[in-house]
Amino acid sequence: MGVIEELHRARDSYERREWVAAYRALSDLDDDALDAADFFALATTAYLLGRTNDVVQALQRAHQVSLDRGDRPGAVRAAYWLASTLWQRGEAAVGNGWLARAVRIVDGLDEEVAERGYVCEARLMSHIFRGELGEALALAPEVTDYGRRFAEPDLVALGLHAEGRLMISTGRVAEGLGLLDEALAGVMAGEVGPVTAGRVYCSTVEACQEVSDLGRAGAWTAALTRWCEAQPGLLAYTGQCATHRGQLLRLHGAFADAVEELDLALERYRALGGHPAVGLAHYELGETHRLRGELGLAEAAYAEGIRHGHPGQPGRALLWLAQGRTDEAAGAVRGLLAERQMPVQRAQVLPAAVAVLVAAGDTDDAVDLGAELLDLGDAFGCSALQASGRYAAALAALAHGAPARAAEDARLALELWASLDAPYEEARSRVVLGRALRLAGDERAAIAELETAAAAFTALGAAVDRRETAGLLAGEQHPGGLTAREVEVLRLVATGLGNTQIAERLVLSEKTVARHLSNIFTKLDVSSRTAAAAYAFEQRLV
User: Fold this and answer.
1) Exposure pattern of 417-433 as b/e (b: 16+ CB <10 Å)?
2) Is-contact 117 143, C-beta < 8 A?
3) Cα separation of 323 and 403, whole Å?
4) Secondary structure of 303-354 as H, E, C letters
């Protein structure tokens, strides 16, 4: 077969999205036989197959061939994709150099060209990397406009998507999600190139997970899975796809299947030679192990996530809480709340913060944070976040000695989680409902809820939750709605110890002891240490 026939075969394979065949055919041809479009095609196939070194080499050739033939817009396009590829590989300085070259060339053009839109998108991403979200948001409509003016579907998708994600980050969640849907409409219509399509798909699912829009996350993950499966040999984006499937499987209670998917994600990332999202996959693996009660495995997975750039929180704080390291957990969530001031960032921390602070005895802050989470759930219009808000409010109300309010919020949380087919979260809501009913004096109804929750935890394999619920069913409740830690503090108060001595005995801060004591006074409706000590003796706590 002659060179011309081989080139036609390579181009036909590329048009049919037979990436492996196209890559092999284009790689086997001498560089002199390829034009700039062929080098772009080679770069695309190499990217999709995870051969990033070949991507860089092919784009460099596309850039040079374009310059040699006087195609300066083509040279700009190659430089843009080089900058994007190198940024993803963590080679920021080299990527910045290629962006500077793209800017210099495009600034020297007299006419308006689509490539100005690509340079604009690269500048937008530079602002995002520097945390300059306002500046990035101002550029997004400009990217979209270039795409529409020059009939460049990739630019339209990138501009709409960037604007949507930036809106979400600043709290305009409903508007932002609408723009993400619009961007993906073009992707699903087949208008967009495969590299941009995969990028928009994965980033959209990530955004849906961040705001707990789990219905959208499920729909777009299914679409992403079909898109990946339709392209034999595809390696790029399959790690992200497996991670998102793992997240959804965990939500639906399939913990073992979730672990398999997350292990697959890590395997795909290793095949790619690494990826910025490796840390997230390890973190999600840690979350799944934590829910299964595999605390050692969870700790190891969180540590790996941190090693790869993920903060490991708030999951690690919940792990510490499960290990009895309550003060460490409380310190961690307080730090997170101080750092994360944007609405979406807050929404990711608040559910864990309420659980930890309730356990730490800081019920006043827990109540306030639960109310904030409820407000965010309503503002975002995402049912999973609304469910988390109701659960947090129920937990805080229970800790504050308000069983009627706790039961009402727990029932609402239970209904919302059930509608999302989230059996673990549904069972947790039943536990809080059972505790609220018990505190209100309805022991029979309480036992019914706790037994249902215990059966669910057993079926799920959630070992820690199963043991805790079994303890509640065995009658391990405390008088006056006190938590286990509050009972410990009350016992030491009854023996005559002061706050400093109690803090030393329980390895707590004096501030934490004072909070516990304030909660004890509120729950028992007493105003002095003497009255609290008398209650402890009456209830045979000492």
Assistant:
1) beebebbbbbbbbbbbb
2) yes
3) 27
4) HHHHHCCCCCCCHHHHHHHHCCCHHHHHHHHHHHHHHCCCHHHHHHHHHHHH
| CA–CA–CA angle 248, 47, 39 (5° rounding) | 155
Structure tokens at 476: 């391990």
What is the architecture, at CATH level 2, of domain 326-477?
Answer: Alpha Horseshoe (1.25)
pLDDT at 262: 98
- Cα 522 from Cα 490, distance rounded (Å): 13
Output the six-digit token pair for 381: 């219009």
Instruction: Provide the pLDDT confidence category of residue 471 given band limits of 50, 70 and 90.
Output: confident
Task: Please give the full DSSP string across 156-182, using - where no structure is assigned.
Answer: HHHHHHHHHHHHHHTT-HHHHHHHHHH
Q: What sign for the dihedral angle of Cα 337, 343, 349, 352?
A: positive
**pTM, entire model:** 0.86
What number of other Cβ atoms are within 10 A of residue 272's Cβ? 18
Q: Where are the domains of the chain?
A: 3-228, 235-312, 326-477, 482-542
Query: 3-228 and 326-477 share one CATH topology?
Result: yes
8 Å CB contact between 127 and 169:
no
Identify the H or E element spanning 347: helix 343-359
pLDDT recorded at residue 477: 62
CA 521 vs. chain centroid, Å, equals 39
> What tokens appear for 263 in the block?
């292990």
φ/ψ region of 508 (left if φ > 0, alpha if ψ in -120 to 50, else beta) reads beta
Question: Would you identify the CATH topology of the domain 235-312?
Answer: 1.25.40
3-state secondary structure of 523: helix
For domain 3-228, the question of CATH label 1.10.645.10 is answered with: no
Tell me how far CA of residue 30 lies from CA of 3, 42, 52, in angstroms: 9, 12, 20
* CATH architecture, domain defined by 482-542: Orthogonal Bundle (1.10)
| Residue in the structure block whose two tokens are 């003060």 | 327
What is the Cα–Cα distance from 522 to 189, expressed in whole angstroms?
Answer: 61
Alpha-carbon distance of 404 to 408, in angstroms, equals 6
